[in-house]
Amino acid sequence: MSTIQNSIDVIAKQGMLPLYFNADESKSITILRTLYNSGIRAVEYTSRGPEALSNFKKMIEVRNAEMPGMLLGIGTIKNLAQAETYYLTGADFFISPGFVPEIASFLISKEVLYAPGCMTPTEIIAAENAGVKFIKLFPGNILGPDFMSGIKDVFPNLIFMPTGGVDTTKQSIETWFNAGVSAVGMGSKLISKEVMEYGAYDTIEKETKRVLDLIEAIRG
Asked: How does it assemble (predicted)?
């Protein structure tokens, strides 16, 4: 099995992809440990601040030492230079807010999963023609499950995951899965700024376990 397919399988089996950024290195690591202890095996750390790269390097070190089977990906990658930097750092998969052909070409040649954000059929077609297998529907709150329902038959060979506006409720998650997605991206609805600020890691653990159980029940 290719490393790209393995990353897709881990995220799809999990049914959700937690994503977060925190400027504080120790908080970033503690959240990662908390997610791992909750049963998570793939996490997206978003490159949304000057501290992201140094934090990510340390997170990779800790992951390698403590968390067997954990895939650690990097998000908010917008240009080739960023992709090359994080590839050398050891990121397992890459996620963008939009489709960047140069990033797709580089990562696919390295057998690394690239999931670009798309919000039109034209963008999805361009990504598919570039060899992309996994599409992030972004922003999910703007597109909605009806968009997924409307396009799924046109793209039978692609895996879809909405990010942005997906709630942790049964109704929200179930509607997306019924529309045809294979996973849901979970950011601030799961790991809020308040929860991170106050270090309420037990809340993150409980909510993560609850959402994983919810997804398992929805899938039947």
From this structure: Homotrimer.
> What is the model's pLDDT at position 181?
98
Pick the catalytic residue from 25, 44, 102, 170: 44
Q: Is 81 left (phi over 0), alpha (psi -120 to 50) or beta?
A: alpha
Residue 206 pLDDT? 98
Run of H or E residues at 170 = helix 170-179
Q: pTM of the predicted model, to two decimals?
A: 0.97
Burial profile 163-184: b = 16 or more Cβ within 10 angstroms, e = fewer = bbbbbbeeebbbbbbebbbbbb
β-sheet bridge partners, residue 161: 136
Q: Given the structure tokens 């959240």, which residue do they identify?
A: 31
Do 155 and 147 meet the contact criterion of CB atoms below 8 Å apart? no
Answer yes or no: 136 catalytic.
Answer: yes
Distances (CA, A) of 217 to 174, 175, 187: 10, 13, 21
Please choose, from the candidates 89, 97, 96, 137, the residue with its C-alpha nearest in 3D space to the C-alpha of residue 113: 96
Q: Which amino acid is at 212?
A: L
Contact indicator for 83, 73 with CB cutoff of 8 Å:
no
Partners of 159 in the beta sheet? Answer: 134
Provide the pairing of β-strand 16-20 with 184-186.
parallel
Low pLDDT (below 50) residues in the chain: none
